[in-house]
Design the sequence.
């Protein structure tokens, strides 16, 4: 008499469940991958070159213009990625956990430990716009 593969009822349902869940995992994985690809398409921001002096909180960046000097930083706090949208006493303040950065992007007070990411920029050939290179 031949003996077949013996599998317990519990293991059978566990294996069947895993097999049925695999297509859902595959769909999720592909959609997350596509979302990340779409996010990477917009790697530059264009702003007017005649932006006024001062601190400007744009969606993804903080632009600081003093005289002819231009500094551009990510608006994401280096702690957990909250958007920095305001300042107090010439310091950039994260609204979530209170990290403090100076106007050079240097972290002065945690919980963040790293400085804000600085972005490179260039001017368009006509000189009317600034193109910020997001990384």
Sequence:
């Amino acid at each position: 008499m031949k003996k077949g593969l013996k599998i317990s009822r519990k293991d059978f349902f566990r294996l069947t469940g895993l097999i049925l869940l695999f297509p859902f995992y595959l769909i999720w994985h592909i959609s997350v991958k596509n979302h990340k690809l779409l996010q990477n398409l917009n790697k530059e921001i264009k702003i007017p070159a005649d932006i006024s002096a001062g601190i400007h909180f744009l969606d993804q960046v903080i632009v600081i213009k003093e005289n002819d000097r231009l500094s551009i930083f990510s608006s994401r706090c280096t702690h957990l990625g909250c958007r920095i949208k305001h300042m107090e006493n010439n310091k950039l303040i994260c609204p979530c956990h209170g990290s403090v950065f100076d106007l050079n992007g240097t972290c002065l007070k945690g919980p963040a430990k790293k400085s804000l990411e600085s972005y490179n920029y260039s001017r368009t050939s006509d000189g009317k716009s600034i193109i910020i290179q997001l990384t």
